[in-house]
Design brief:
Blueprint lengths: L1 E4 L5 H8 L6 E8 L3 E2 L2 E10 L1 H18 L4 E7 L1 E3 L4 E9 L2 H18 L2 E7 L2 E5 L4
Parallel strand pairs: 1-5
Antiparallel strand pairs: 2-7, 3-4, 4-6, 4-8, 5-7, 8-9
């Protein structure tokens, strides 16, 4: 399950769709919107993407994680559009027989998303707005 979504991410439902009885570990990463950045108060964010390329890249990251780590399943959801502080912007769920593989694959996946998926963030502050460079 690799998708770009405009609706809120329900991490519990996402997890439940991937976990199976053979799994001994589930690693979940949730990226959430902070209410501050660069010394300024953030009112909300907007995420924009080159959607067809971003979708393909999410799938490639999942395939790479399956090849590199002893995991059973992986899924990545990334929100687009307006997102408020404390809301989930990205979720990675990895299932595996053992925790080390699940943790390692989860970290690999979110790092790859941040480095390689064509998604851009615009921060809206109380006193203006800015496109944010870099991938934090």
């Amino acid at each position: 399950m690799f998708r770009l979504v405009y609706e809120p991410i329900d991490t519990a439902s996402f997890r439940n769709a991937l976990v199976g009885p053979e799994d001994g570990a589930v690693a979940i990463f949730e990226g959430v919107v902070r209410n501050h950045a660069h010394g300024r108060r953030v009112s909300y964010l907007e995420y924009h993407a080159y959607e067809s390329m971003a979708q393909r890249r999410l799938e490639e990251i999942g395939a790479s994680a399956r090849k590199e780590f002893l995991i059973r399943d992986i899924g990545i959801l990334h929100r687009l559009g307006r997102i408020n502080p404390a809301e989930c912007s990205v979720a990675v769920v990895v299932t595996a027989a053992h925790r080390a593989a699940a943790f390692d694959a989860c970290r690999f996946a979110i790092d790859a998303v941040k480095k390689t998926v064509p998604i851009w963030k615009k921060e809206f502050y109380e006193d203006g707005e800015a496109w944010v460079g870099g991938r934090d």
